[in-house]
């Protein structure tokens, strides 16, 4: 357990450094606005240098051949799927990354309501782009399959059309505002923000539509509110924002698949109990590839670049949370094992003391029996002498 704790500590330290670098990258990216071309080029070079530092830290966060910030070497199949919605009349709201995907798979927004989904696996197949199949191949199920997000919708009223991909296994998505469920999978569109019934599990790509009223407050997106099956994956892959009378947005996808040597996620299993109990620490790809930073145009659309950085920060924060949770599990297991060892030591001591007491009693019993036997033999030997002494007295 001590070695496993050191592996985890190295990964945590590396992730914290990467988080700090991402904060610096975000600050520099924001400073690109309003500068002349020469200043922008200089800032862009600084940003790229910081991005290179992330790769250096991730690759060097290695102890005894185990690296929880890159994964294990493998022939990697990467499928990139671009999901595009029909154009919006109004600027779509900025949604957080809302997805349950396996490690090393990412979802990033291009700032116009569409997304790029990247699924990575070491088990190439015709369905390599399906995150649920990828998760099974990697042996690492998607996390946060049951989750909720609070989203400010902005000041513009209108109808939102949200693209929700539930992939193969059924998933539920619901949208709430001001205590009312205004949209849900498997339910018809309710004009005017009217209430709808509870969501039903759906598969594949879906469009969930609802009317947004900014006077009613933030939106709450809830996914699988009654729990989710292990291994299920889903993703919000786009959003369109239009007038309430406009046609429902349409969605299109395109995918490309490539193979190369790289790394894939793995579980680092550590035995912590006498009966083979284990704690599994999942690796996280915090390289620039895993964080989606490789293809960013830092001199292009600022909103797109900031969106990618924020997505990367979210992945790093999730990794830190994961390592922190495992650290607490290690502490609990270590404390239990320490207390169990103390109890066993006392128990063994008690058993030894009890055995010594029994043997001592047996020895004393044997000694008393021996003394009694000797006394009985002595009395028996003395009886003839006593009788003879009585005759001698009579004769006298």
From TrEMBL:
Domain called Flagellin C-terminal: residue spans: 307-391
UniProt entry tagged with the keyword Secreted: yes
Keyword Lipid biosynthesis in record: no
Gene3D superfamilies documented for this protein: f41 fragment of flagellin, N-terminal domain
Keyword terms, alphabetized: Bacterial flagellum, Cell projection, Cilium, Flagellum, Secreted
A single MF term (Gene Ontology): structural molecule activity
Localization annotation: Secreted; Bacterial flagellum
Chain ranges of the Flagellin N-terminal domain: 9-71
Sequence segments annotated as region (Disordered): 119-147
A GO CC term assigned to this protein in UniProt: bacterial-type flagellum
Chief location bin: secreted
Functional note: Flagellin is the subunit protein which polymerizes to form the filaments of bacterial flagella.
Family affiliation: Belongs to the bacterial flagellin family.
Name the UniProt record assigns to this protein: Flagellin
Organism whose genome encodes this protein: Sphingomonas trueperi
């Amino acid at each position: 357990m001590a070695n496993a704790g050191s592996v985890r500590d190295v990964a945590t330290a590396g992730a914290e450094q990467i988080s700090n670098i991402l904060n610096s990258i975000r600050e520099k990216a924001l400073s690109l606005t309003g500068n002349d071309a020469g200043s922008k080029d200089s800032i862009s070079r600084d940003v790229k240098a910081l991005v290179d530092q992330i790769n250096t830290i991730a690759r060097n966060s290695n102890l005894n051949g185990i690296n929880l910030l890159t994964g294990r070497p493998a022939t990697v199949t990467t499928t990139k799927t671009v999901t595009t919605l029909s154009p919006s009349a109004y600027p779509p709201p900025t949604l957080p990354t809302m997805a349950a995907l396996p490690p090393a798979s990412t979802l990033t927004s291009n700032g116009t309501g569409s997304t790029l989904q990247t699924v990575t696996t070491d088990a190439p197949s015709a369905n390599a782009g399906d995150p649920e199949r990828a998760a099974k191949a990697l042996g690492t199920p998607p996390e946060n399959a049951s989750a909720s997000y609070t989203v400010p919708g902005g000041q513009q009223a209108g109808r939102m059309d949200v693209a929700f991909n539930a992939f193969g296994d059924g998933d539920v998505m619901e949208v709430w505002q001001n205590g009312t469920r205004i949209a849900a999978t498997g339910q018809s569109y309710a004009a005017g923000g009217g209430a709808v019934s509870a969501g039903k599990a759906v598969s594949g790509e879906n469009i969930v539509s609802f009317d947004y009223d900014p006077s009613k407050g933030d939106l709450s997106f809830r996914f699988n509110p009654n729990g989710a099956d292990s291994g299920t994956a889903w993703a919000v892959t786009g959003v369109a924002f239009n007038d309430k009378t406009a046609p429902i947005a349409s969605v299109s996808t395109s995918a490309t698949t490539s193979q190369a040597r790289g790394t894939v996620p793995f579980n680092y299993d550590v035995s912590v109990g006498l009966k083979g109990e284990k704690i599994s620490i999942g690796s996280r790809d915090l390289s620039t590839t895993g964080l989606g930073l490789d293809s960013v145009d830092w001199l292009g659309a600022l909103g797109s670049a900031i969106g990618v950085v924020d997505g990367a920060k979210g992945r790093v924060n999730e990794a830190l949370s994961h390592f922190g949770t495992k650290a607490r599990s290690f502490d609990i297991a270590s404390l239990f094992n320490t207390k169990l060892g103390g109890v066993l030591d006392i128990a063994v001591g008690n058993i030894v003391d009890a055995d010594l007491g029994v043997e001592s009693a047996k020895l004393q019993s044997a000694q008393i029996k021996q003394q009694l036997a000797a006394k009985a033999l002595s009395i028996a030997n003395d009886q003839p002498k006593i009788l003879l002494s009585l005759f001698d007295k009579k004769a006298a």
